[in-house]
Amino acid sequence: MKNDSRRARREAERAAAAARETAGLAPGAPTPLEAEPAKEAAPAVVGTPAPDPEYAAEQVAATTADTSTEAPNAAKPAEGNPVATDSKDAATPASALGARGQRPKSRTRIAGVLGSIGVLCLGAGAITAGSVFPPAATGPGVEVAMTSLPAGDSLASCPSTMKLFTGAGTGVDPEFEPASKDAKTSVRAAVLSDSAGRIPGTEMLKTDGSVEKTIAPRLSAKDAEERRGAGEDGTSERKGAVSPASGYAEALTAHAQPLGGVKSQVAAVRSYMATDGDLAGLAIAGCPAPAAETWLTGAMTTPGSTAVLNLVNPSASVAQVRIDLRGGEGTVEAANLLGLAVAPGESKSIVLAGYAPDEKVLSAKVTSSGGRVNATIQQSTLRGLVPGGVDYLGATASAEKTQVIPGVAILDPKLAADLAKPGANADAAAELVFAATSSEGATVQVRALGPGGEVPIPGGGEIVLASNATASMPLGGLPAGNYTFVIEADSAVSASAKMVRGTKADKPIDQAWAGAASRLGSEHLMVLPSEGNASVVLTAPEDSATVSVRSLGSDGKLSAARDVELSGSKSAVLSKADFGDGAAALVLSATGAPAYAAAVVTDGAYGIGALGLSDAPLGREGVRVVLRD
């Protein structure tokens, strides 16, 4: 019996030594079974059952045995403490478990070899998470591949013509009637070919998707996808196509198909002119691509003034639109404007005085998800029986700390003071309008660049904006001429300039709003309106730049390029004589320092309008896509 007892002790010691060696323990160190019993585990997180150590050991073994490759992001054992596994133990069926889920002691001995219960539970959780759940999203420093999207149609979306508001004054979709008996309205569009002379298929579509005008027939998909860098003789055969002016009064959108995987260059303009009725005057609207975010700055809702926000959805998806208004005192609460649904092909009109009455200057930020929208404000003023001006407030450049507004026509100071006599015509004065875009407000400084260089602004050219507020800076006292205004603020702002034109205070007066512009790039297309005479203002506020200008005739031919050198913070002006009588559009590109362009359009004794430049089209667009199970 003694020999048997000694033999059993020696076998037990050899087993303990083997266990220490397998577990990486020092000789003489107690094994987990010889150590003191584990203290009570810490409480589990609320809603998560506490792990059973025996069940966790089984899961570790099962996972290790069944997985032939290492799971991504799986936890590895600490160096110097390898984890031992037993494939036979892992294969033990659940029926072998004893009462309350406990396993036989032989299984517990293996658990002891694996190490302490705390390490075991952590290892089981980490390995199981890496095996069962999909890999975590890519962390910092891991680049996600860019997926290239095929280029789609280029769009140029024009608002409907000026209409006389006759509704009740609040809500959405008021009633309208024709503006006047002699009103002229038109939409003109133009498109450029590729270097091989191919004209992309281009159509003017109504909001219901029907074709109002075909400018060029669409090419087959195979032909359109082919890339051609030049004509058959190896030279550029660039040309264009111009649509005849259309008298269609409702909203229209020009669609131009892409060529060679690159979006085509298409642009359009809406013009309106009337000499009688309440909406007498000239109104010009550029036709930008529908956008997910639009800033409109400078509306008026004082007595006699009407501002109607028009939304058009030319896309195939429903647009969920939010409209944030900022007035003289800050944010205007308008809960009904925070969730408007605009269906595909639908348009909505909103009388802003119903939500923000008696505002001398008002701005609107229009954002949409789903479908993108075209947003413009139809602004009109009536002083008793005398027309006080009409125009479209179009999109300005995105809110930034630095803004540039080219193409602002300033009248002779004496005439300007006469038109803005106190009383009925008090607001008939040129001014800059700014909207602070955050609760911080903004301090704004302005520089005026005229034909001869920088001109001091009466009053110092500085204004402080309250939190999320819209305010104006008068421009009275500046010498007559075409200007560019450079705006610098300590917080992002949206900006526009109001122009006034007339002959006498008791005669019809017209107004126009020029918005902040984006920097000129490699190529832009500006379609000239069929009404009025356009003058293009070019400027490079900070340094020297060269702007190349080519005319596109109504016959589709492009003229030779003319280079305009800009320097010394001067504004250069190109008139009809510079780009020819038959010009229907201009093609502009710039090199050097940042340069900007816009047009001032005049007609008759008092008509005035403003025309900005649309952004250049993009090529293939990309999106980062992360795939998950």
Automatic annotation (TrEMBL):
Comp. bias regions, Polar residues: 61-71
Biased segments, Low complexity type: 31-44
Ranges that cross the membrane: 110-133
One Pfam family this sequence matches: DUF5719
Extent of Basic and acidic residues compositional bias: 1-14, 220-240
Segments for region (Disordered): 1-106, 215-246
The protein's name in its UniProt record: Secreted protein
Lineage, highest ranks first: Bacteria, Bacillati, Actinomycetota, Actinomycetes, Micrococcales
